[in-house]
Amino acid sequence: MRGSFGLTRRSLLAVGVSFAALSFAQAAERAPERAGRLRPIDRRRRILIRNATIIRMDGNVEDLARGDILIEGSKIIEIGRFIPAAGARVIDASGMIAFPGFVDCHRHSWEGQLRRINPNAETLAEYSNATHLSFATAYRPQDIYAGNYLTAIGCIDSGITCVIDNSHNSRSAAHSDAAVEALLDSGIRGVHASGAPQVQDKNYDRQWPGDLERLQRKYFSGGESLVTLRMFSPPNRENWALARRLGLRITTEFQGQAAAEALDALWVDHLVGPDNTFNHCGALPQRTWDIFRQSGASVNVCPRSDAQYGLGEGIAPYQQALDYGLKPAFSIDNETSYSTDMFTEMRVVMMMQRALVQNRRFRGETNLPPAVMARDVLASATLNGAICAGLGDKTGRLAPGFEADIVLIRSGDLNLYPSNNAIGTVVQAADRSNIDTVIIGGRVRKFGGRMAGLDTRKLRRVVEESRGYLFRSIGYKEDLFAEKLPKLY
Ligand SMILES: [Zn+2]
User: Fold this and answer.
1) Is residue 155 in some structural domain?
2) What is the spatial distance between Cα 410 and Cα 430, in angstroms, rounded to a whole number?
3) Ligand 1 centre from 252 Cα, in Å?
4) What's the pTM?
5) Residue 248's domain is classified under what CATH number?
6) In a domain, 129, yes or no
7) Per the domain annotation, does 35 fall within a domain?
């Protein structure tokens, strides 16, 4: 795919910026000196985060009002009240709160350049009108690259350090390559969930799912990488068998009676397991929740997506997941109607769960589930997401031995000051503007509130070329004030 995207991996990003001769501030502002793919991390390089309020999300280990985090190479090696700097580069995090990077369990990253194109969509049909049924069929590999790259950069910028890229527009091997390369180039911890296009017209090579084996060999056969591979597929015996033969986890869009029945047949044959991740999970019968629990499958709910498009019952089944003893994670799904923001997702869930329980109390119900706490919501956005990503032993908490995927927010900012409760500050009040630093696998990707080494002009050029091409190719005339879109196919 080299050279065919209108930009080279070499030129886009300096994700491997050397800090050896630079202060962090200089490094963050400096133009790319080496672009593209991450170079191997220096395993001896140490970074010390000094004087942060540390939310660990690590079981019963207590959080620290003030403490240090020592990173060596890609990993956290120590957390404590005071750690000697000894050769480490120091990030002064006084007045900041450190917490594990967010994990978005389900994003259709390829749609990045279509952000907010239909903010008022009410149905899956309206969503599909602006995606699968129209622009999607015109996507070239470079459009997949542009969408995935923009989405991944937007994630990092807003504190999402890991995303499961639900890639359901893989029209050729080159499209899949472009999706993977964009994730690799962005520096995000990515899980590429490779799936077939939803509209299978003449612009589809029908290379999927067989192409997964090639994709795995090309990008995922050599050692440690920030990006991993899985399959995106509905309940389908042959597809799931192929995924398992290749050792890949499986992500499935899942809601409603028909899906439940499809799963029953697989469950009877012992084909549902801990390698399955289910998105949405609305409008399901009790027996399906039992299958989730008994199989060890992971689930993520889509608070805004279900409400926006009327999926499932229109209310994300967060409470049901809790009722059945599961650990629900969150997913943003897509940006064609709303933002990339996990802070919003957390607050929607918190208020939605409260609203539902408070309303049941008002109606005289007793024996109600407990009110959700800010910490529970933060766990869904971090820990539980890591489990969905198959990375529960690598990310989602701040603990020695875990990858250094860390977000620092400035609690002294005007909208957060004074911070009288650290978790409350993060969950109930913070937003992207408060993010000072984002570290992924020991690499500083945002510092001082600015993305490190990002060539913004080049990014804009790539996105605008793609957006212009897509609009022209289906004859869409931009309308910045449209309430609803016309039929686009
Ligand atoms: Zn989805």
Assistant:
1) yes
2) 9
3) 9
4) 0.92
5) 3.20.20.140
6) yes
7) no
Per-residue tokens: 405? 């995927």
Q: How far is the CA of 107 from the centre of ligand 1 (A)?
A: 7
Q: What percent of the chain has pLDDT over 70?
A: 92
* Residue 297 belongs to domain spanning: 102-388
| Ligand 1 mean position, distance from CA 253 (Å) | 6
Count of beta carbons in the 10 Å neighbourhood of residue 371: 12
User: What confidence tens digit (pLDDT) does each residue in 239-293 have?
Assistant: 999 999 999 999 999 999 999 999 999 999 999 999 999 999 999 999 999 999 9
Assess whether the previous peptide bond of 418 is cis (omega < 30° from 0).
yes
Cα 331 to ligand 1 centroid, rounded to whole Å: 9
* Domain assignment of residue 37, yes or no: no
User: pLDDT per residue over 191-222, tens digit each?
Assistant: 999 999 999 999 999 999 999 999 999 999 98
Considering its fold, how many domains does the chain have in total? 1
105 CA distance to ligand 1 middle (Å):
10
CA of 6 relative to ligand 1 center, distance in Å? 28
Q: Select from 158, 225, 232, 155 the least CA-distant residue to 192.
A: 232
How do residues 378-408 score in pLDDT, each as one tens digit? 999 999 999 999 999 999 999 999 999 999 9
State the Cα angle at 261 between 257 and 266, rounded to 5°.
Answer: 145
